[in-house]
Amino acid sequence: MLYRKISAEIEAYLCSGNDKIMVIEGARQIGKSYIIREVGKRLFKNFVEINFVKDDETEGIFRSIHGLDEFYMTLSMVAGGKLGNASDTLVFLDEIQHYPQYLTMLKFLREDGKLTYIASGSLLGIALHNTTSIPIGSIIRKQMYQLDFEEWLIAEGWGKEALDYVRDCYKRQVSLTEVQHEKLLGEFKKYLLVGGMPDAVNTYLETHNIVRVREVQEAIRNLYKEDAAKYEKESSKKLLVRRIYDMIVSQMENKKKRIVAKDIRDKKGDRFEWFAEEFEYLVSSGIALDVHAISNPRYPLSESVHKNLLKLYLNDVGMLTGRLYEYNIAPVMKDERSINLGAVYESVVAQELKAHGHDLFYYDNTTKGEVDYLVNDVAGMTVLPIEVKSGKDFTSHKALDRFLRNPEYNIPAGIVLDNEREVYTKDKVTYMPIYYIMCIERAEIPADSSIF
């Protein structure tokens, strides 16, 4: 069984006595149902699972229900003798976005308090936007992602002591030994190939066969495209979700890497805002990560977003390398000089930062250049710029230098992530190996967070 960090958060919530209903959001095939099922069955005597997609494809007995009495009656038909009370019975409402009326019903299920509930789904941002009565105050929304690099290391057999040691080295800004560096960088490169989709990781662990891994990733990709086709069909206007999704990989090869409106339909004059629904689908479904442009960085960064400049990354770096290199592992594992891994490194950094709770931004200034990532430094109430380098020229970063020298921005420091072992600081820039991205978390909540 793959270790997932979110299982501890789910368990803490279910044991807390909090009567709000936790809703786990995220892309399909990242393991939401599996981890909820594992934790729920371990903690509760009775575990009842209702998958609304499967229900709709079969008898559809939950499809037209809108009231509590009818819901409880139908639930008892399915659960039989597995219904007790809130202390011993957990009801898992899976794919809740498929029957949007249940999002409204969560408020009343919480108030009724007969049983304990947890829900999961994708596209919840869109579903909640279209829900007439949003259950604000009744739910706790928690975003889930596929395995991050630390979870990958655990799957590969790395123990807590080794991971704690790496984190301690990051905090103290010291280098690993040559042997340690090569071992960890090797694991990072394997992660670039396999990614974090649970089925892909399990297939790798079972077979160590890149062909089998790519088959899993292609099946997930096709599932995403099938979901997008259904969404397009149900829309009131002709959408281009699949077209934009397929464009993400090709855009990675461009210098700017951002989505250009006129390229979507190959029509000059097309405007970025015309495709807002497509972008919303890709991001809300979890199959793409959005990175917004900032030209005048101020903390918090969300207040300075340039809405018409957007980069999109695939949600999983393994699926990206699958599209770029198929079964050839040499470009990643053997550092072939003819291959530019910049897009792959940028993608995995986006994936890691997002999984660690960061909102994603990049710096784009017509005269001063571009910096790969900006994240909010909550502890310092400032902005942290991050540049990602995959080649030997990692000390060349004119845009980052200009950014840090600008007295109007007043940014104290920046980070360059590269392939080299040594960690050192020069001219406000700290250079560190790419695998240390696993340690760049959001600011932790202090032990004493009371106001008075």
Q: Could you walk me through the main structural features you see in this protein, from its secondary elements to its overall organization?
A:
This protein is of the alpha/beta class and about 450 residues long. About 40% of the residues lie in helices and about 15% in strands. The strands form two sheets. It has an eight-stranded mixed sheet with strand order 7-6-8-9-10-11-13-12. Strands 2-3-4-1-5 form a five-stranded parallel sheet, with helices on both faces. Helix 18 links the parallel strand 10 and strand 11 (about 415-420). Helix 1 (about 5-15) crosses helix 2 (about 30-45) and helix 10 packs antiparallel against helix 11 (about 210-235). The chain starts with 5 loop residues before the first helix and ends in a 19-residue tail after the last strand. Mean pLDDT is about 90; it is low at about 445-450.
Q: Which short descriptors sum up this protein?
A:
452 residues, alpha/beta, eight-stranded mixed β-sheet, five-stranded parallel β-sheet
Question: Termini separation (Å)?
Answer: 44 Å
Rg estimate, integer Å: 23 Å
Task: Identify the strand order in the major beta sheet.
Answer: 7-6-8-9-10-11-13-12
Overall pLDDT level: 91
Bulk shape: globular
The helix content is 40-55%
Give start-end ranges of low-pLDDT stretches. Answer: 445-452
DSSP helix count?
18
Percentage beta strand = 15-25%
Structural class: alpha/beta
Major sheet attributes: 8 strands, mixed
Number of strands: 13
Q: Secondary-structure map with pairings?
A:
Elements: H1 6-16, E1 21-25, H2 32-43, E2 46-51, H3 52-57, H4 68-79, E3 89-94, H5 101-112, E4 116-121, H6 124-129, E5 139-143, H7 149-155, H8 160-172, H9 178-194, H10 198-207, H11 210-234, H12 241-251, H13 261-264, H14 276-284, E6 288-294, E7 305-314, H15 317-325, H16 330-333, H17 342-355, E8 361-365, E9 369-377, E10 382-388, H18 398-405, E11 414-418, E12 424-426, E13 429-433
